[in-house]
Design brief:
Order of helices and strands of chain B: EEEEEEEEEEE
Number of strands of chain A: 11
Largest interface: A-B, 24 and 22 residues
Radius of gyration of chain B: 13 Å
Distance between the termini of chain A: 37 Å
Mean pLDDT of chain A: 94
Oligomer: heterodimer
Number of strands of chain B: 11
Order of helices and strands of chain A: EEEEEEEEEEE
């Protein structure tokens, strides 16, 4: 079974620029999550999708962050404009609706804002 | 106060030692408790999953949950250099592993 795929793996941008991250979840997983992990901290949930609908985006800074999951499969997370404090690893995870709903994480995208 | 508190370490122990990792939490609604292992530049991977209070053992790993004290632990027996990683506790109040709240993570090094 293929894991969660993310791209790019690394990105360096200047503040006020925009950036987009892509995630392809495990096949058949209805739920998709985006997390932000700042260096030395645990992941913080930004947004949760179930199929193509948003379940929870209470911690998403909506003035600069946006996310979509068209057709209920792949997802993109965008930051526009970026700030220095957005430097972090952005993790995507997916889970099935069945059983324990265990979350499987991708390798993450490491963003550096200069 | 953070919902989940975890000592960030770093923790360094010799190979073969028993390792104890702990988290405390404040939200009494948490019912599902997990431990994730995260290697450098990788995503977290689930190690242990427990529901409510009690112990769960899986090979060299034992997870304990004490809901009355709002305290969870992960024990690693016969620790190996390959166990060197950051260990994250995570908790949820809803079914399964949804809406996870993570601890800060403890960075562990096992010295050969």
């Amino acid at each position: 079974e293929a894991g969660v795929a993310q791209s790019p793996r690394y990105k360096i941008i200047e503040k006020r620029q925009s950036v987009a991250f892509w995630c392809n979840p495990i096949s058949g997983h209805a739920t998709l999550y985006w997390y932000q992990q700042i260096l030395g901290q645990g992941p913080k949930l930004l947004i949760q999708f179930q199929n193509n609908g948003v379940v929870d985006d209470s911690q998403l800074p909506k003035d600069r962050f946006s996310a979509e999951r068209l057709k209920g499969v792949d997802s993109t997370l965008k930051i526009q404009p970026a700030k220095l404090e957005d430097s972090a690893v952005y993790l995507c995870a997916s889970s099935s609706l069945m059983g324990r709903a265990e979350q499987y994480f991708g390798p993450g995208t490491r963003l550096t804002v200069t | 106060q953070k919902e989940v508190e975890q000592d960030p370490g770093p923790l360094s122990v010799p190979e073969g030692a028993i390792v104890s990792l702990n988290c405390t939490y404040s939200n009494s609604a948490f019912q599902y408790f997990m431990w994730y292992r995260q290697y450098s530049r990788k995503g977290p991977e689930l190690l242990m999953y427990t529901y409510s209070s009690g112990n769960k053992e899986d090979g060299r790993f034992t997870a304990q949950v004490d809901k009355s004290s709002k305290y969870i632990s992960l024990f690693i027996r016969d620790s190996q250099p390959s166990d060197s990683a950051t260990y994250l506790c995570a908790m949820s109040a809803v079914r399964g592993a949804q809406k996870l709240v993570f601890g800060q993570g403890t960075r562990l090094t096992i010295n050969p």
